[in-house]
Amino acid sequence: MAINIRGRNFLTLLDFSPAEIRYLLDLSKNFKDLKRAGTPHRYLEGKNIVLLFEKTSTRTRCSFEVAGMDLGLGVTYLDPGSSQMGKKESIADTAHVLGQIYDGIEYRGFSQKVVETLAENAGIPVWNGLTDEVHPTQMLADLLTMEEKKGRLKGLHFTYFGDARNNMGNSLMIACAKMGIHFTACAPRELFPAPALVETCKKIAAENGGTIRLTEDITEGASGADVLYTDIWVSMGEPDSVWSERIRLLKPYQVNAKVMALAKSDAIFMHCLPSFHDTNTTIGKEIADKFGITEMEVSDEVFSGPQSVVFEEAGNRMHTIKAVIYATLH
Questions:
Q1: In a designed cystine with 231, which of 47, 164, 168, 304 is the match (CB 3.0 to 4.6 A)?
Q2: What is the DSSP letter of 78?
Q3: What pLDDT was estimated at residue 1?
Q4: Rounded Cα gap, residues 191 and 214, in angstroms
Q5: Does the structure show a pLDDT above 90 at 82?
Q6: Distance between CA atoms of 293 and 121, rounded to whole angstroms?
Q7: Neighbours of 293 (CB within 10 A)
Q8: Active-site residue numbers?
């Protein structure tokens, strides 16, 4: 049966079947081939999309803008100071207005409720570029990267180190469950994902041949893994006051050479970026001065090493986002 998701919103991978995710990944591969070959694919010429950013970004903004332009779309970017959304105009009213002007809306911000309200009222596809709860476009890039590097998805052993309650921990657990990947969250118990979501993902994983495991034990978490993944310890929008506690909890869970050595010899390292693997950033310098650590969630040796695929992973954001836009608008 042919897959058709035209007109659908893209808010969380919980809304999509494994077959629909497979379709988006295959479409991403096709677009990546076209891009590499220099073959024009302005399939959506005459349509227009708007990008609403309450949280700034490098990869998400650039990926949506280039994907849109490659497809022939007109692209409007609105930063937090360029819209009355939520200030002088309600989210619902903004959605109605934008739905009269554009063919699709991307939202990157804080509350999942905001992107859901946009989707309920716009009358056109709405795409989640990140909220505090989930990051579905990143998941497609991660799945594509894993499949390119490991040759398959189903049956892989995947371990996430860090704050497993955040949008990346949640989203990776969902994505792995959908695609039959054995998912492990390795974190302090205080930072385990919400029990309700864990139970939901366990049921999904069982249907697709995967498993869900939570552990505080680093050796248990890393041993035999095909993929080790981590994320920054403090997410955008969280207060600076949480750094001290987060460093105390997560310092033992840094992905370093010792941890990588526990995984399979051909394991890959992944990270959604940005990463604090050195002090070459303002925040990195501040944390080093205040807490005396020069590497946080991943050592520079691993981040810059031969098993790291982080930059190819980042590049895949554009191809997978292009697939989402095309599949929902064509």
A1: 168
A2: E
A3: 60
A4: 10
A5: no
A6: 47
A7: 14
A8: 108, 135, 138, 231, 272, 317
The reply to whether the predicted model has a pTM over 0.90 is yes
Contact between residue 270 and residue 310 where contact means Cβ atoms under 8 Å apart: yes
In the block, tokens 């001290």 appear at 244
How does DSSP assign 218-269, residue by residue? HHHHHTT-SEEEE--SS-TTS-GGGHHHHHHHHGGG-B-HHHHHHS-TT-EE
What is the Cα 227 distance to its own chain's centre?
15
Give residue for tokens 């986002």.
Answer: 321
Angle between helices 167-178 and 195-208 (to 10 degrees): 20
Question: Which pLDDT belongs to residue 80?
Answer: 75
Which residues are CB-contacts of 144 (< 8 A; sequence separation ≥ 6)?
25, 28, 29, 316, 319, 320
Q: Cα separation of 72 and 313, whole Å?
A: 24
- The pLDDT tens digits of the residues spanning 267-313 come to 999 999 999 999 999 999 999 999 999 999 999 999 999 999 999 99
Kindly tell me if the per-residue pLDDT of 232 is higher than 80. yes
Tell whether the model's pLDDT for residue 76 goes beyond 70.
yes
HSE value, Cβ hemisphere, 13 Å, CA-based, for 18:
15
